[in-house]
């Protein structure tokens, strides 16, 4: 009896956590659906989107995933900027945002400790979406519109130790899933 219940529970969890392609659901990430909906809304309004990457291999791949995703939708109002490690330091910062900004800013592979940048975005009325995989600083999270990071509390993604590129991939995958559910025609995003 105990084995049977255990098997049923495992089957139910698997059916909830995985989609038809065998990937874990992107919506297991805390804030991913909220972020995806905001990005779709921005795309519908043809809002400028800035993706802020990182200069290491994971950050460059994460940035490329986002750039290729927007290009696949023929969305021409998205651009990528990667801080210069010598001039700008690591990740998104207030100084970097004074030079590079947009109404919607998405970080990839950085941002989980960018408290000053998050405050700057609030003051300037920029929407900030942070995607990262690095550990939280004292369990504190920047005050952003959405934070997608498997390390944060209440994130139910099945794996905590992932790279930033995987987080970026799942954000794109979540947007794609929501566009399909809306029965949106991807060609409508051509500009």
From TrEMBL:
Molecular function GO terms recorded: exonuclease activity
Gene3D superfamilies for this protein: 3.90.1640.30
Cross-referenced InterPro entries: DDH_dom, DHH_sf, SSDNA_exonuclease_RecJ
Pfam families: DHH (PF01368)
Domain DDH: 49-177
Taxonomy, superkingdom: Bacteria
UniProt-recorded name of the protein: DHH family protein
């Amino acid at each position: 009896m105990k084995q049977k219940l255990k098997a049923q529970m495992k089957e139910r969890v698997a059916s909830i956590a995985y989609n038809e392609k065998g990937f874990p659901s992107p919506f297991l990430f805390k804030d991913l659906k909220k972020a995806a909906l905001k990005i779709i809304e921005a795309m519908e309004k043809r809002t400028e989107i800035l993706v802020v990457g990182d200069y290491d291999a994971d950050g460059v791949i994460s940035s490329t995933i986002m750039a290729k995703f927007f290009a696949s939708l023929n969305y021409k109002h998205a651009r990528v900027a990667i801080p210069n490690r010598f001039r700008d330091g690591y990740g998104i910062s207030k100084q970097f945002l004074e030079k590079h900004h947009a109404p919607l800013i998405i970080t990839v592979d950085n941002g989980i400790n960018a408290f000053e940048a998050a405050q700057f975005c609030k003051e300037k009325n920029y929407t900030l979406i942070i995607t990262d995989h690095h550990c939280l600083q004292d369990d504190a999270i920047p005050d952003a519109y959405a934070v997608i990071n498997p390390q944060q509390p209440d994130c139910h993604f099945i794996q905590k130790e992932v790279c930033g590129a995987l987080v970026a991939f799942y954000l794109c995958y979540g947007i794609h899933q929501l566009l399909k559910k809306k029965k949106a025609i991807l060609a409508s995003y051509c500009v």
